[in-house]
Amino acid sequence: MMRLLLLRHARAQARDPARPDSERPLSEDGRATARRVGAYISDQEFVPDRVLCSAARRARETLECVQSAWESSPPVRFEEALYSAGPDEILALLKTLGTATGTVMVVGHNPAVEQLAARLAREGNRGSIRRMAASFPAGALAVFELTAADWHALGAGESWLRRFVCPNDLGADGAG
């Protein structure tokens, strides 16, 4: 079974006119959230085989905090394009993975992460679909099980939204 985890980076510090937006670091709250999300991913046995991560600092720091809860770290491909990508560009990056990867996590930005999740969530847990449609906050995670034969075939109708988890859903220990 193939699985896709779409993770919006955790909360970043406020914009600073002295530095580019792509270099904004996570806030302390964002770091704590990312560690809880990482624990949740580990507890649910969703640790990915591969990660595609935006090269923006807040996405890299989110991934670093998430991975701190895992026993081992999968290969990571940092993608400059994910910083400004739309949902079609994220889908195109996923389609380059072929058949070798079972579970992939994308760490990216809104609105693209939310838009791709909405496009893929045609089927699945109805409560999760409604919650996700209402809000996809910083640090939120959408977990899809895919019916596509390989990553090349991924598209609408080829996925099932299994879970949607917001930072507020997770206790201090990551349980949710």
Radius of gyration: 15 Å
**What structural category arises from helix and sheet content?**
alpha/beta
Overall helicity: 25-40%
Number of helices, counting only DSSP H or I runs of 4 residues or more: 5
- Strand line-up across the major sheet: 3-2-4-1-5-6
Cα(first) to Cα(last) distance is 23 Å
Describe the main β-sheet briefly. 6 strands, mixed
Strand fraction equals 15-25%
Low-confidence stretches: none
Task: Write down how many β-strands occur, each being a DSSP E stretch of 2 or more residues.
Answer: 6
Element order: H for helix, E for strand: EHEHEHEHHEE
Shape: globular
Instruction: Give the averaged pLDDT, no decimals.
Output: 92
Which terms summarize this structure?
176 residues, alpha/beta, 6-stranded mixed beta sheet, 5 helices, 6 strands, 31% helix
Describe the structure in your own words:
This protein is of the alpha/beta class. It contains 5 helices and 6 strands; from the N terminus they run E-H-E-H-E-H-E-H-H-E-E. The protein has a 6-stranded mixed β-sheet, sandwiched between helices. Helix 1 (28-43) crosses helix 2 (57-67) and helix 3 crosses helix 4. It starts with a strand and ends in an 11-residue tail after the last strand. The mean pLDDT is 92.
Please render the helix and strand layout as text.
Elements: E1 2-8, H1 28-43, E2 50-54, H2 57-67, E3 76-79, H3 87-95, E4 103-108, H4 112-120, H5 126-134, E5 141-146, E6 159-165
Parallel strand pairs: 1-4, 2-3, 2-4
Antiparallel strand pairs: 1-5, 5-6
